[in-house]
Write a structure and sequence with these properties.
CATH class: Mainly Alpha
Number of domains: 1
Order of helices and strands: HHHHHH
Helix content: over 70%
Radius of gyration: 15 Å
CATH topology: Four Helix Bundle (Hemerythrin (Met), subunit A)
Number of strands: 0
Largest sheet: none
Distance between the termini: 30 Å
Shape: elongated
Structural class: mainly alpha
């Protein structure tokens, strides 16, 4: 547990630019997923897995997209999207092969982009899910 905490502290980037919309936030996630697949293709499995962690903990959870999806779309759906990140990380660490990694990455891209549009359609503001308001 201590190792995971230290890993997260040193691998999560400081967020200096904040998304102004759910679709922008989805694209921030996609950037990390894209980097993950690039690192995987280059044989850098540790860096590939770290990018998935950054996408999930650094954006999806930390910036409250997961909470917005859970409340707006439903907890089961949010759980299914969360599992996609885990599947990608496991595919990378288990060296499941390029096709499996690319397929898992594409499912995340599709899910976060789709859900971002749902949040916009439902007129859910980013600020609703920010702490200390």
């Amino acid at each position: 547990m201590r190792f995971l905490t230290l890993l997260l502290l040193f691998t999560l980037p400081l967020q200096t630019v904040s998304a102004d919309s759910w679709p922008e936030m989805a694209e921030e996630i996609v950037v990390h997923i894209d980097r993950s697949t690039e690192f995987y293709q280059a044989g850098e499995l540790k860096k590939a897995a770290q990018e998935v962690v950054k996408a999930y903990f650094g954006i999806f959870e930390d910036k409250k997209m997961e909470a917005a999806i859970r409340v707006t779309v439903g907890s089961k759906h949010a759980w299914l999207v969360e599992r996609l990140f885990g599947k990608l990380r496991k595919a990378i660490k288990g060296e499941a092969g390029l096709e499996a990694v690319m397929e898992a990455a594409e499912k995340i891209r599709e899910a976060v982009r789709r859900d971002a549009l749902v949040l916009v359609e439902k007129e859910i503001p980013l600020e609703v899910f920010q702490p200390n308001q």
